[in-house]
Design brief:
This protein is an alpha/beta fold. It has 6 helices and 9 strands; from the N terminus they run βαβαβαβαβαββαββ. The strands form 3 sheets. Strands 4-5-6-7 form a 4-stranded mixed beta sheet. The structure holds 5-O-phosphono-beta-D-ribofuranosylamine.
């Protein structure tokens, strides 16, 4: 799992694994920020952690190559971006084609990029939500796996809406990882087919 901050999505996966509901094992957590609280959550769960920072690897491709090396050393099958606030380069994506899942706090393809909850609010939508998708070279663009819809209230601030969306992120991310681990996801062009369980 790759993180940059708080790590509540990481925690949701850790908890699902503890309940035997993940279908896989979280083997390594990598953060680009040494102060990310998610690193502590990983350590508490006994998961090995690494920090790969921009300062140590200022060239984007070399940064990503370092991460790829760690993932390969650990024989990782699936990479989960859980609040990882960097766009991946081709060095990374070509190595893990259709094996990188991201969670985004809006109903893609609307409101890509940063502060998606605030973008949705400012746009005046009545419903927003969250999306899990496979990662391709475009930001927040790859084939969609799952989505959850969340209503927007007139009184919402970006923070209030983000708090309403977050538990849904946790659910669809856990569900998406489980579907992947159980071999039930198949990518066909832009679409993700979910096989019967
Ligand atoms: C989540 O809203 C995620 O969708 C976005 O960043 C936030 C990360 O939260 N990309 P956390 O670190 O998992 O708590």
């Amino acid at each position: 799992m790759l993180i940059s901050g708080r790590g509540s999505n990481l925690q949701a996966l850790v908890d699902a694994e503890a309940r035997d509901e993940l279908g896989g094992e979280i083997v390594v957590v990598i953060s680009n920020k040494s102060e990310a609280f998610g690193l502590q959550r990983a350590k508490n769960a006994g998961i090995q952690t690494y920090v790969v920072s921009k300062r140590d690897y200022p060239i984007r491709e070399e940064h990503d190559q370092r991460i790829v090396d760690i993932l390969k050393d650990n024989q990782v099958d699936l990479v989960v971006l859980a609040g990882y606030m960097r766009v991946l380069t081709d060095v990374f994506i070509s190595e893990f084609e259709n094996r990188i899942i991201n969670v985004h706090p809006a109903l893609l393809p609307a409101f890509k990029g940063l502060d998606a909850q605030l973008q949705a609010l400012d746009h005046g939508v009545r419903y927003s939500g969250c999306t899990t998708h496979f990662v391709n070279l475009e930001m927040d663009d790859g084939p969609i796996i799952l989505q959850a819809v969340v209503p927007v209230q007139a009184s919402d601030t970006g923070e209030v809406l983000a708090d309403r969306i977050l538990p849904e992120e946790h659910k669809i991310l856990v569900d998406s990882v489980r579907l992947f681990c159980n071999g039930r996801l198949k990518v066909e062009g832009r679409k993700v087919l979910i096989r019967e369980g």
